[in-house]
Automatic annotation (TrEMBL):
Taxonomic lineage from the root: Bacteria, Bacillati, Bacillota, Bacilli, Bacillales
Record-linked InterPro entries: HD/PDEase_dom (IPR003607), HD_GYP_dom (IPR037522)
Name of this chain's protein: Response regulator RpfG
Domain annotation HD-GYP: ranges: 113-309
Domain of life (superkingdom): Bacteria
Pfam families: HD_5
Amino acid sequence: MRRIHISMVRPGERLARPIMRENGSVLLGAGVELNERFIERLRGMGIDVVYVEDEWTSDIVPEEVIRDETYQRAFDTIYKTVGSLMDTPANRGRASTPDLGRTFRALFGEIIHDLLQRKDIMYSLAQIHVADAYLFQHSVNVAVLAGIMGMAKGYNRNQIEELGVGALLFDIGMTKVPKELLHKTTPLTPEERAIVEKHTTEGFDMLRTQHDISLLSAHCALQHHERYDGSGYPRGLKGNEIHEYAQIIAIADVYDALTSPRSYRNRYSPSEAIEYLFAAGNTLFDLELIKLFCRHVSVYPVATTVMLNTGQIAVVTANNPLAVHRPVVRILREADGRPVSTPYEIDLKYDMQLMIVKEL
């Protein structure tokens, strides 16, 4: 399979991975033949990339950092928990689930179990949801990234659990933000921004009253918008005044937000998001944490369609953990646009004359 931008999809091509609805159910299943109507519908739902079947890449299958079943269970749990708080005006903002902590500790335990099965963890998730599912999908992605970081830091089981529960619930304060602001496509007014920014303190207040959630987990909700140079909110904390859990979640939050499609901008590619993070080192984020984070992120995920500096079109077949910007690629088209008679692979780690110039 290969991952391509929706603008490159042609009628008659078949989906290689399903497209998920906001509630986690399947919108379009793998194997569905795409026609003009389907393609336009996907565009209208905020989907900008898809996985399609291709005879030359049929053996290329992105390896998820966690199993599809684990991801779907996490998505479903967050959807039901957070969705119930948002949908009912009387309940909005009330973390009334009596076993909230136990539920999310068990959920994160499944995520960690999957991560521990991987020898070399390079983060990349192939799940594709409609844009309206962003809030729920985002929490799962941030939790996975935080778990990878906690393991890389050498945290003990209790620390990883505190971090993971905090990551799954760090944005729970968003349940108190009016939906019209969450989906607004124009710039927020100062008054509207003040309402949105209150989600940090609202989330902290919701979590700290839960008897089975650590206060440090609750602080992830409070501090994830604080910044290393003191420019963040709600308290303008600096450097090590910000708990390390919250610093990790802040990096994961920004990375996933940048690489996700939003109603008001195009998504960043993983490589562009990493460039942004490095540029923010020791200003918005701790540079050492950024370096650790980026060692575990797949800059060019397997199945990504790319263009080389020669003009050749290729698909990423494997990542090099020690050279994340230099994956193995399979050439599908030559520089003059001709399809190759037989696809062949190049390991960019060893061919320094070649480089990826953009994703397609």
